[in-house]
């Protein structure tokens, strides 16, 4: 009797097929669950910059440009106006205090001087003539009084004698009265002569005093005019460098007009231009430094000019200690203006990555050097060389600091050596 043969369900082929399908599904699940799903990009090692995270002294500073100026500059202004008659010196030469730079001419001043001098001479003559006339008048008065005293003595004798004779009936009453009137008239003349002499003396004193006051006023005016004439000669007020002479022969110069400039060579200052963004952070006493001829020189801000011009404001900086011997007016120097004191900080070098990330993230290189992964960080202050890292990095780690163009949406960079 025939037996019905049962068909095998699990054939070798079927088992292999199921195992194959299971393996593929498992692989897919593994890749989906456990594989690296980050966006990757291959980069060449020689096309990126890798820097090491360090820890050390950090100082925030900004680069500014400064111009060397003399510490003291004297501007020579015309005290009086006039035409430039002669120039003795040109700009660019050293001068000593008192050296004549140029001469002005002013006809009106010269005429005023002559007029005041003439007036003074006339007043001196008036005073001398008044004093001379007074002396002559007093001499005449004294002579008259002497003569009157002699006549009075004679008239008194005649009067007293005639008085007795009249009493004795020797002479007439008329003769007696005539002698009496003559005696009294001479006494009155003497009193009048004395009063007249006193009046003339007082009048002469008053006139002399007035003339002397006028003479004193004229002398003062004469000195002013004389001083103005002297001011036509423009001289150096200090020793130094005559940097500019702003007028030419024949040019008309007004009183108060600046005509020359002298720089004191005994010291220099630096005028630096700072971006207006830092106005609130700049103060008197803030320090800076610059390198010159192989040496470093310290500066300190002593004056701030808050006026904004083309987005910048000026500060005046003085040398703290030594001044470079070869430094000259008008030179420009690159200054590091220190916005903070030195402090310990974690730092990374400046790089083009910052333009893309804004300092919010960076690619950190794995210790194997084979790849770099994106990591969030926090950047604090910065200077021309470094960024201060507040969090996200540790000293010794390596980061990519070159440009991130094309990396913006990548989480991982595979480094090809």
Sum up the structure in keywords.
6-stranded antiparallel barrel, 417 residues, alpha+beta, conserved putative lor/sdh protein from methanococcus maripaludis s2 fold
Task: Describe what you observe in this structure.
- By secondary structure, the chain is an alpha+beta fold.
- The protein folds into four domains: 37-59 and 343-416, conserved putative lor/sdh protein from methanococcus maripaludis s2 fold (Beta Barrel); 62-71 and 267-338, Beta Barrel (Elongation Factor Tu (Ef-tu), domain 3), CATH 2.40.30; 74-104 and 242-262; 108-230, Helix Hairpins.
- The chain has helices at residues 12-34, 107-167, 173-230, 353-357; strands spanning 40-44, 50-52, 54-58, 61-70, 73-77, 82-87, 93-95, 100-105, 233-235, 240-245, 252-253, 258-263, 268-275, 287-292, 295-309, 312-319, 332-338, 343-349, 361-365, 371-376, 378-382, 386-391, 398-400, 412-416.
- The strands form five sheets. Strands 1-24-20-19-23-2 form a six-stranded mixed sheet, with no helix packed on it.
- Helix 2 (107-167) packs antiparallel against helix 3.
- The model is unreliable at 30-35 (pLDDT under 50).
Blueprint (SSEs and pairs):
Layout: H1 12-34, E1 40-44, E2 50-52, E3 54-58, E4 61-70, E5 73-77, E6 82-87, E7 93-95, E8 100-105, H2 107-167, H3 173-230, E9 233-235, E10 240-245, E11 252-253, E12 258-263, E13 268-275, E14 287-292, E15 295-309, E16 312-319, E17 332-338, E18 343-349, H4 353-357, E19 361-365, E20 371-376, E21 378-382, E22 386-391, E23 398-400, E24 412-416
Parallel strand pairs: 1-24
Antiparallel strand pairs: 2-23, 3-18, 4-13, 4-17, 5-12, 6-8, 6-11, 7-10, 8-9, 10-12, 13-16, 14-15, 14-17, 15-16, 18-22, 19-20, 19-23, 20-24, 21-22
Helix pairs in contact: 2-3
